Q: What sequence folds into this?
């Protein structure tokens, strides 16, 4: 009897020990799963808020524990028209604040960088018969942009159409006065290399000054955010439409614009529906990506220029009557139309009209605006019917 009693006591002790062990193991498992700071076992998924009665609840389970076929696909955001080009882009890209950058056009500055990522490019006389560019970025991010050069008043007024971040290296006294009084978002956001270099603009060693100031899309976006140039564009200034069908595009169309210091030629390519650009007879290659510059639209604006009386006549700087109206040639889809341009105020958009006074519909894509003084030789060669034979695949 004593042996039987002793056996029962020993069995009870074993049972109690086993129950205690189970309780401790259960508590340990709960701590590993429920404590954010607990060390997780390899391959395990910690779930916060697990109940000790039944494990993690369905509402607390991470989607990572579900089989892939049960996960809902992420919706693809709908594309919207880019205000500067009319091309379909993600909404976040369409909402970007425009950035305008002054670009050198002396022979020592070529080949320049950043053109193929630009939405709009302006070219106009600057000094001594040498023109200058202003590239305007919206959705594009150039891997490099430059060489960056100095400001002129009329370029500021074109940049003001977008309240753009205006990037330059110094400028004429007239332009610098405007930027000092209206460069904090009144008409543009002033981004002078003298203030923001070398963090956001820098000088490369492969070229000599003043043709060696560069930046890129990443740093220009950071600078725009820093100075508060973050508001989305107010809306499209121009009307865009799709390109015409390949069968309706002419072959052999050209434009020639002769500035005193260089000559610009556009050869229309019907397969891509773009105007391949040549400078001094050579293809203009963007040094940033190695591709030829080829906009979808080319506008030639006639604007009255005169000497800028700024106390430095040896500089041969100019001023322009860019507010007002004048003749224009608008080339798109291989056809050049005679019309007019109009700009109502410093910050108003420059608009383009055909001979009947109707606003011109541009082809969605990049637009180059060639600004020329009266009397500048401009040659328009109309395209003809496409040659017979199999057509190339349009782009």
A:
């Amino acid at each position: 009897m004593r042996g039987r009693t002793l056996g029962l006591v020993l069995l009870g002790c074993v049972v109690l020990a086993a129950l205690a062990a189970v309780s401790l193991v259960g508590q340990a498992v709960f701590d590993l799963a429920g404590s954010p700071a607990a060390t997780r076992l390899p391959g395990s998924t910690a779930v916060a808020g697990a109940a000790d009665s039944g494990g993690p609840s369905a509402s607390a389970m991470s989607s990572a524990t579900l089989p892939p076929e049960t996960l809902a696909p992420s919706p693809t955001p709908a594309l919207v028209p880019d205000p500067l080009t009319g091309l379909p882009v993600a909404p976040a890209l369409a909402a970007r604040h425009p950035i305008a950058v002054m670009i050198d056009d002396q022979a020592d500055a070529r080949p320049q960088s950043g053109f193929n990522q630009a939405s709009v490019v302006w070219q106009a006389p600057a000094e001594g018969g040498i023109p200058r560019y202003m590239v305007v970025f919206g959705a594009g991010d150039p891997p490099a942009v430059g060489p960056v050069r100095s400001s002129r008043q009329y370029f500021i007024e074109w940049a003001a159409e977008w309240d753009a971040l205006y990037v330059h290296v110094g400028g004429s006294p007239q332009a610098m006065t405007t930027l000092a009084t209206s460069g904090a978002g009144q008409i543009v956001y002033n981004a002078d290399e003298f203030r923001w270099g070398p963090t956001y603009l820098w000088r490369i060693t492969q070229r000599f000054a003043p043709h060696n100031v560069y930046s890129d899309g990443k740093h220009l976006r950071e600078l725009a955010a820093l100075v508060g140039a973050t508001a989305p564009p107010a809306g499209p200034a121009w009307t865009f439409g799709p390109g015409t069908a390949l069968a309706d595009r002419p072959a052999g169309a050209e434009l020639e614009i002769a500035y005193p210091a260089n000559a610009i030629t556009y050869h229309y390519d019907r397969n891509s529906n773009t105007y391949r650009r040549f400078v001094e007879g050579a293809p203009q290659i963007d040094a940033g990506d190695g591709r030829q510059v080829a906009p979808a639209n080319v506008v030639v604006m006639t604007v009255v220029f005169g000497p800028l009386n700024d106390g430095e006549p040896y500089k041969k700087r100019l001023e322009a009557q860019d507010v007002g109206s004048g003749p224009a040639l608008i080339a798109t889809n291989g056809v050049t139309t005679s019309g007019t341009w109009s700009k109502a105020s410093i910050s108003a958009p420059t608009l383009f009209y055909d001979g009947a006074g109707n606003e011109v519909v541009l082809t969605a894509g990049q637009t180059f605006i060639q600004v020329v003084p009266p009397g500048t030789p401009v040659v328009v060669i109309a395209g003809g019917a496409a040659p017979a034979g199999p057509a190339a695949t349009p782009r």
